[in-house]
Amino acid sequence: MPDIRFRVHAADGQARRGEFTTTHGTVQTPAFMPVGTAGFVRSITPREIGLTGAQVILANTYHLSLGERLQAVKHMGGLHRFMGWNQTILTDSGGFQVFSLPERKITDDGVIFAYEENGEKVTLTPERSMEIQRDLGADIVMAFDECVEYPAEHEYVKRAVGRTTKWARRCRAVELQRHQFLFGIVQGGVYEDLRRLSAQRITEIPFDGYAIGGVSVGEGHDLMKQVVSMCAPLLPEDKPRYLMGVGLPEDILAAVALGMDMFDCVIPTRFARGGTLFTRTGKLRIQDKSYRKDRYPVDTGCRCYTCQTFSRMVLRYLFFSGDPLAETLATIHNIAFYQDLMSGIRDAIAAGGFEAFCEEWLRTYTLKKSRSKA
After folding, report:
1. Check whether domain 7-265 has CATH 3.20.80.10, yes or no
2. Residue with more model confidence, 63 or 302
3. What is the pLDDT of residue 1?
4. Closest to 60 (Cα-Cα) out of 42, 75, 86, 81
5. How much is the pLDDT for 121?
6. Can you tell me the distance from the alpha carbon of 90 to that of 267, in angstroms, rounded to the nearest whole number?
7. pTM of this prediction?
8. Domain-by-domain residue ranges, the chain?
9. Element holding 165 (H helix, E strand)
10. Active-site residue numbers?
11. 123-134: per-residue pLDDT in tens?
């Protein structure tokens, strides 16, 4: 079995700065993964993603498991060639997407559902999820789990924890490609006893990394922090810790402080396509009329291509013109913003000043909002 070679180089409180290595390179942690749902991060080229400093991206098993898409990836020789991305790729198991479908039937064997795009009815089992991810060829593969929405009754979540454990063992028994690593997922909703139970059972299985799932399902920032504070201390210190589906900058900072290493979310790219951009002083809506003659860049402290080349005024003009370049430039900026945040986090942990970094970063980030309330 290959070794992901996770190393913690510095710690500041519970926050950790480290790295892990796959066949396609070394990933510095804490790390944020841009999301390429159907095999591509929308509105941006892989080269541009790399220039933002991203070292790992995520692809979606559910969307890529449709027959023609999966065959296309296999025909190209795997996701790396298909996506034009020669760095690390992680694929989720498809569980989150499947369990969010309105029409699905959960059994101990797996989940029966119909694809939203073509209505094709299929059964996704742990073994089938592993086979699809093996064919996709990602460096990191996620175990198939039962993701429970919030809120949910204790008894229901307890059954889901039991099923997730059984499925995790079945996933671990499937042989993957030699270069692939498999991560297990802790579930349990917002219930401390179930989170502890799930963490105990999942960490008994020899996975290459461990994730906290079942967050970003409507529970909010405070409950998310509560769940992470329950789970993170129960995960092995010598393995990467991944908080799935998170999120907003303030969520990431809080989770890093609690010991998490990896994050993903569609927020930066989805917001970008809608004209919402992240800056060090908060989010801005580029279509707002206040920017129609604004010659400043989106963020005066940002070194991305968008900020070095175009003004807010021009970006606003492109959005109102319906030019696809608008979404590309906004996406470049938002991904760069997130990668700059992660780089700042890593430097602050290494310097032993993470708490002060968080306080100052959040003070500046919420400055505009504070002034608007005054």
Report:
1. no
2. 302
3. 67
4. 42
5. 85
6. 18
7. 0.96
8. 7-265, 272-368
9. helix 154-172
10. 92, 264
11. 899 999 999 999
